[in-house]
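Appendix B, record 7
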Amino acid sequence: MIRSIKLVTRNNTPRWVVLIIDLIISGMSFGFACILTEVFIKSLELQLFNFLRPLLIILFVRLIAFRITRSYTGIVRYTSTQDAVRIFLAIALSTAILLTGELIFEFNSIHTFINPAVIIIDSLISISALTGFRIVFKLLYNEYAPFKSGDSTELIIYGAGEAGIIVKRSVERNVKLGKKVVAFLDDNKQLHGKTVEGVKIYSPDIDFNQILKNPSNAELVISLNQLSAVRKTSIIERCLQNKMLVKTIPPVNAWINGEFNLQSIKAVRIEDLLEREPIKLRKNKISKELKDQVILITGAAGSIGSEIVRQCLSFDPKLVVLVDQGETPLYEIENELSRANIAIVVADVRNVSRMEKIFQHFKPSYVFHAAAYKHVPLMEDNPYEAINTNVFGTQNVANLAAKYQVKKFVFVSTDKAVNPTNIMGASKRIAEIYVQSLNAKLSLESDHHTMYITTRFGNVLGSNGSVIPLFRKQIAEGGPLTVTHPDITRYFMTIPEACQLVLEAGVMGQGGEIYIFDMGESVKIIDLAHKMIKLSGFEVDKDIKITFTGLRPGEKLREELLNDNENTIGTHNPKIMVARVPEYNYLEVNSLITELYEHKDSLQNEILVKTMKKIVPEYISNNSIYEKLD
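Structure tokens (predicted):
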């Protein structure tokens, strides 16, 4: 039986073969109906004579009905409810014809060929037999046909709902995949032990060895899009421990033309393991603040800036002004958005006269300042550029915000500004200090002034230049993955999560605050590398190696969200806290930054860094040529 099924895996069974089989089943059903109604009363010769004539009539009428309803055209191994409906219609039609004929014969006192009771019983048997034949063939086919001995992939589907069943059927239709659905997992305890289309449903906590022959040659597909982050992480971790591949399906609203496609099943990303429960934003409050407002976003083509743009647009602003010096990424985001209420401006925040023209023309009410140089090793070699953009660029935009009476200025900073060990972090800390001191100065001068708010968070998953895109590229190239130090750790957030918190903090801020975000647990980069290799279906050291390259200039093992002189105050949002930081006098800060400005064009790195350390005493260089200046 198995061998014969394998013969038809390459080509569908011809329709004429299915039609002949249906007629044979119809003939057998008629014979069985005759036996049940005890038509055979006398001699064998008479029985045979009385059976053949009505049999031919039955088969002829059934043939016509099969042709009309095309019940034989469905692919048997993909039998569905539609095929069962066609069979029912074919039998119902032919039965109606036969009964009508018998009534006409009886009304005209013509001898009837077939007992009406036989016709009715035959129709019931035929429907059951024809449908049963297809179901049995489908079950046998799905059980044996797609698989070669020893190399089939066992598939578990997480979620026994409608989406999970659709995934199962799609897998069964694609025989060439060589995959067999062996189990469903579902959190609903009432479903445990039950079956869906012949596949049993288990608790997600079951030992995979109980349902799999070889877990290392198995896959799990998560069909639930509303699965909590904690639950998703738990099931993915278990799969990785068993060397199983984990995949997910897109949300239903992302299915092409509303139909599921197997090609849309994607491998789980490392972001899925690091994500946390969704943030609950005060959307009404944000919408009230941003609706019908002009919003200016610097660094708008970057990974953070562009996401702030997308989220701001969801609150129906009057206009969003995208400012960036990157021509190509601005062009790309313009094509992506194609909105009437956006303005694309190619400009550099370091050019104060250019920026002033922008403020004059658009008159923004809100400014989100995300423009910055952020790569630690590069800025360690180019302190002039870090200072020019991160310090003076911020100073330019902040001053213009005050001059043109912007309602709120939100500065996007970084956890690297806390106890900085590198030029990038120190430059961002200087910018933080300036923004805070400017807010303090303005608050003394007037009750109605621009409110300056700083947001501080850690590494953003998938942002330009972050470790995850680097690891993905290295895995695609066959390795090795480069990790600077076995003990290095980092805080991570997703891009949407970070930008949501920036908006929330910007709306709630009253000026002068530095908001820090709940970054969750610090993650070891070596663990991140291991998980990314496993999620890609490889084994660490066997398929892809990991090498340690040593800390880069300015890099530290562990990032911090607060320095020794800072603590926090809670807010209405448990994920957002206000850092209590020392206050700075604007005149003193401005004098120090002016001193820094006077040295910037000398291009003497040591003088620049020495001045930075004067402004930020806690800036202690690490693994850097500037350690001698501490």
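Remarks on this record: The radius of gyration is 36 Å. Residues 1-10, 40-46 have pLDDT under 50 and may be disordered.
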